[in-house]
Write a structure and sequence with these properties.
protein kinase activity; 15 strands; seven-stranded mixed β-sheet; 15 helices
Amino acid sequence: MGNSLTSINNSQYINIPIPRNLPTTSLQPQSFFSPGSSSNQPSLHCKHVQKYLDIDGWCKKCTMKSVNTGHQGLDKLIRHTQSKSSSWTDAFLEWIPFESFRDIQKIGDGGFGVVYRATWIQGRRKDRLKGKKGRNNKMQDMRTSPINVTLKCIKNSQEMSDEYLKKLKSYYKSSLIQSRKRMQQLLKFYGISQDPSTGEYILVTQYAIHGSLRLLLHRHFSSFRWTEKIWWLCDIISNLLTLHKAGIVHGNIHSGNVLQIGDLTRETTSALSDTGLNYPASPSFYGTETFTTNVYGVLPYLAPEVILGKGVSKRSDIYSIGILMIEILTGIPPFSHRPHDDKLALEICQGLRPELAEGTPKVYGELAKHCCCTDPSMRPTAKQLLYIFNHWWSLMNTDESEIYQIKNSFLSADKLIPDIIEEKRIMAIKSDEAIYTSRLLQFQNVLDRRNISNYSTSGSTTNYEGIITNNESISSSQFLLLDLNLPDITIDL
């Protein structure tokens, strides 16, 4: 078995022996260290001036010099994150040799990457270092013990394009930001590696032990109650709000990209992943004349304007949240019973949306519909959604009689929906052409807007366009406040 990702399949592990000369997690006294390509390899004769050394003896200069990915753009990105750091404990990216991983197992395959779980032998850098500060510090335990990480091998990334590098830089930026109102942050981005057999680059990120929200709903849907579901939504929209406030559009929100983090299945937090990375890495894709009109993603979660080639936006992210709300409600991936083809794309543009379940709380159903409005200007903002979800969470944890009606609607749904949906889930037949991984979507018929008005929807799925028309004079925030009876949203989130 070779030491590469290509030697792994769904049922096999790869165990890479630890090299004899691999550095340990401690240093000799009176040494400075430069993690670089050998992780925490001591730099016993570092003679750089004091301005390059942090209080713990970490040498930024040595670390930056040790980066050698074989790709000039990646070298520049990694070194840039290191140059902006002032301490070993800062969240800069590392160049991590492939030999640093063992127990590698394939856990997923998407349109633009293959995902693996692995053990990082050295472990990540510790957030805080214990012991006496200074250049004479013995510097014990600079890293954690071996940890599980996720390896995302980017397909055809040997010659990574400048456009993809920009998205990777944005992805790194998004991994650093955190909401001031909630402790949950996005998945940590540790560094970059490379498959030695193919030359494809690998993103090394935090491992989500409970997998995706889609997997959690599939396995345990009937056991979760609305208090937990609303908590997930609070986490998800908190992540999205921090991205939007930083000027970042996620562009690829679906249940497979919402990962569950936590020690216990019933006490997980939700984190958005793969921000902006639902695109090919190879320059050949970006050189075509049709690239600007190409659509990438998972069709059921794409807003109509994105299908029509207008590109992703903060408002299209909100549309995806609306579809995600319906999936959390039913536990069934949207449009799983039919092919994800031109016909579905046309019907989505005309107003087709996944069906709500019987017994859906009224406020929940109305908000999901509002998020899914075809007119982007009629959708709520991430800030409004966070306020509403937090409001619902508060209602679920209070016994005040004046708001019991809303709370009771969720409690009633807890009793009714699982039995109804479980029967549907058992009877449901998934189409082989229902695809829930990001891919290039080319719908020539949809790009001709004239086809939409001449196309009629059919089937049991709901058409929501009669609920909110494009001629409404009422603003998005007014609709929410009137329909949901909430106070004006002026708080700082």
